[in-house]
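Supplementary Text 2. Reproducibility record for the structural model of the 191-residue chain.

All settings were left at their defaults, and a single model was retained for analysis rather than an ensemble. We include the record here because the model underlies the residue-level annotations in Supplementary Table 4.
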Amino acid sequence: MAEAKKTEAPAAEEAPKKKSKLLLIILIAALVLMFGGGGLAFFLMKKGQAEAEAEEGGEPPAKAARAKKAKDAGPPVFAKLDPFVVKLQQGGPQEAYVQAVPELRLLEAPTAEQIKSYMPEIRHRVLLILAGKSAAELSTPQGMQTLANQIRETINATLTGAPLDVAAAAQDQAAPDAPVQAVFFSSLIVQ
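Retained model, structure tokens:
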């Protein structure tokens, strides 16, 4: 009789172990589903919030995404223009000339091809800007930065077909979605 009690006892102990393993598996599966659903909900709400912010800012989501992509992208894209040599406005008894080599920081790499397509018009407009300057205007860092801003906004207006924004030319930063973000001079000589 003592032996019969011994054989029943291990069978009784195995049943609770199987129940606890099943309960543990169910608990783990429920936690995985809960965290997975929470993560999915978080990403979906974050995406919806970004679209709502873009709409509030007045920008279409595509433009906002392109501007964000440009900030997050790798190294910047540059396009170098051919040198310009222009006679400046006379501010004194002698004639003055400027030789400028501008380089453009672009929002996207395809803009470089677009610049090549518009190169005759871009060169013409930049020459007109340079011809309207005097040696005194270009001899200061502020004058050089003003020139760079004017060239940037003129090229952006040419590429986008929008009218030239004179107020934007006074700012040192371009609009986030502008094709040309900045103009730098690798050489600027006034004689």
